[in-house]
């Protein structure tokens, strides 16, 4: 399977271990970075959309430390999941190689509360890719058959220069 991470980068930055069910771990080896707050993370390529666009699912397991005072997943945690998921999914699509790309924009709409203690998945779909930009959209979901929608999103990544 091509997970889009070049082997040297995989060994240097990410655990990228194959897990059951087609999942690949997406944990930074440097535990002092922001990502470690919402790890462990895993990514899996999903079936493409009906019109053939690639999709991937990025999963986190929310705990009490990720909750707000209402005992739901804190909105900032959900936003962090989405931002990281844009990159994890883009690697799976083969759209990003080694280099430091950035999020240009991220639009989100909260439509439900995330529940602590059950998997929180960002379903990411590639809308379009150009030489410098990757346009993505998706939903953050929970529950049987992704029945509980937490958030919808659209984002753009600017690819790193090929210097």
Automatic annotation (TrEMBL):
It holds the Pfam family 4HBT. One of its GO terms (molecular function) is thiolester hydrolase activity. Residues 72-145 form the Thioesterase domain. InterPro entries: HotDog_dom_sf, Thioestr_dom. SUPFAM superfamilies: Thioesterase/thiol ester dehydrase-isomerase. This is Thioesterase superfamily protein.
